[in-house]
Amino acid sequence: MHVLIVGSGISGLRLADLLSDTDVTFNIIEARDRIGGRVLTETPSNENYFDLGPTWFWPEKEPKIVDLIEELQLSTIEQYNNGQSLLELSDNNPVKFIKATEVNSYCKRIEGGVNALVQAIYQRIPTINIDLNTRATAIKRNEDQTFTVTAVNNRTEGERTYDADAVVFTLPPRLLFENIDFTPELPETVKVDLLNKPTWMGAQAKAVVTYNQPFWRKDELSGNVISWQGPLREIYDVTTPNGDSALFGFFGLAPADRKRETLASIEDKVVNQLVRLFGEEARDYKAFYYKDWSQDDYTVTPGDTLNIESFPTYGQPPAYIDNVYFAGTEYDAKNGGHLEGALASAEQTFNNLTHQSMTKER
Ligand SMILES: Cc1cc2nc3c(=O)[nH]c(=O)nc-3n(C[C@H](O)[C@H](O)[C@H](O)COP(=O)(O)OP(=O)(O)OC[C@H]3O[C@@H](n4cnc5c(N)ncnc54)[C@H](O)[C@@H]3O)c2cc1C
């Protein structure tokens, strides 16, 4: 059995990793010029790594990522939540002190950033065949029940096709609905289901500001902040143990408002907020990193630029046809949204695929 995996985020790579211990052969096509998908780590040096995509895992609730990190012998860092946190309501209210744990629960980061996990999975796969810069545009079921996927090379705009016995799409559901033509057509129930699953964090952006010292800690501040004044809504300490100190933030400033700003004006607004909260020392920063996911064509559709108001219902869509699978964090009912959900959905797809392959052999 030969499988085509579309997308090389955590779910696509983990599926490839699992398949590499079986007789099932596979190849991957990936629209970006890199692997990892929503995992994006800035690594100015070995000691300095700052995640602009996912940062944390929650060991008490997320056994799959805990086991994988252990298996791959990666080191972890406990999230710094000591001291007091800040709550900034409106212009007229003074900043309040609150318990650090009111802002963040117990969680951990991965040494090297989440990209260390991506690279460790990738390196464990003995023969991996990935075509980067290759975006899938269509899938057709052939008369012999195999599939042909059409893809376009982003650099040359040249088209090519891939044949497979089974195809696994790992694109976020709305992106899948918008960008892939299905023959036979997707049933209405599947289309509605995909549209009802917003891309997790699709409306978000992240900024990281680095410093020589975690100066906020000497004032017994955790670095954690909740702010209704913005532009950052939530702020956390992401100091690297042997490198630079850092604060990162998620934005309260809406995607449409961010789009009207320049990178320089966003940087200016973020640094001014940190000065307002932590004093003049915050102006003496080393580097500023920024990623706006609401403008990332391989993660979101225009409908994702609205903030998610309540937790979406994630999970598998209704059945389409045999041997076309949907994997990825938004397809996992229990931990959808998180890295744990991406891993769980890769494992579930692996079980379905290998069951199918054994049935075919019999
Ligand atoms: C700002 C932010 C913060 C987050 N924080 C956390 C956190 O702290 N902890 C946590 O657990 N999770 C967090 N998440 C969520 C986490 O990033 C995701 O759950 C996980 O990375 C999803 O992996 P995936 O493989 O399902 O999807 P993706 O990583 O989105 O992978 C899909 C892949 O498909 C590719 N693709 C898209 N279209 C095509 C096409 N047409 N053809 C071929 N390839 C295509 C994409 O380029 C991508 O590589 C965060 C996400 C964001 C954006």
Automatic annotation (TrEMBL):
Pfam families assigned to the protein according to its UniProt record, in alphabetical order: Amino_oxidase, NAD_binding_8
Organism: Staphylococcus gallinarum
Enzyme Commission number(s) from the entry: 1.4.3.10
Residue span(s) of domain Amine oxidase: 109-348
Segments passing through the bilayer: none
Gene3D superfamilies tied to this protein: FAD/NAD(P)-binding domain
Single annotated GO MF: putrescine oxidase activity
Family from the record: Belongs to the flavin monoamine oxidase family.
Class of the enzyme per the UniProt entry, highest EC level: oxidoreductase
Annotated protein name in UniProt: Putrescine oxidase
Keywords for the protein's UniProt record, in alphabetical order: Oxidoreductase
Record's keyword annotation contains Methyltransferase: no
